[in-house]
Amino acid sequence: MSDLTVKDSSEKITNPMWPRLIVAVVLLVAIAAAGYWGWQQYQLRLAEAHKAEIQAEAIAQIEDQWGVRFMHVALVAEGGLLDVRYQVTDPDKAIYMFDEVENIPRIIAGNGVELAMNDDPHTHDLEFGFSYFFLLRNTGDSVQPGDLVTIKLGDLELPYFEVEK
After folding, report:
1. Exposed/middle/buried for residue 138 (C-beta within 10 Å: 0-12, 13-18, 19+)
2. Whole-model pTM?
3. Taking CA 156 as the corner, what is the angle to CA 153 and CA 157, rounded to the nearest 5 degrees?
């Protein structure tokens, strides 16, 4: 007769647990990374919305007090000059922009350097709806394309203004 071996049903075949643990850990890490990335994106959107709100408020204040709307700041002359353009919305208010030294528009670079015109800028009659410009020397390459600068006019500031190339 042949010997038959019968397995005892009380014996259990054990599968190793480590592959399941590795898969679970990888999934948890992936979920945590995705959650962190999503939170970061949400925070960036909140910050951008806050900057846009502050900038819109400053634009309205400057337009109300000084009768001008700044349109752009761009580097020209191979980065040696800043071209600042503005549109006149109220000529009666805008004419006072160049009357006193402390009212002359200035650009404050991200590193804190203040770029300004000379104390006696050339002035002319300003007309409603016309666009005008002035040039500022980019002292020490303080401003680079893509930088966010602040336009200061009198006691008002227009922050987060991007420099174009």
Report:
1. buried
2. 0.74
3. 85
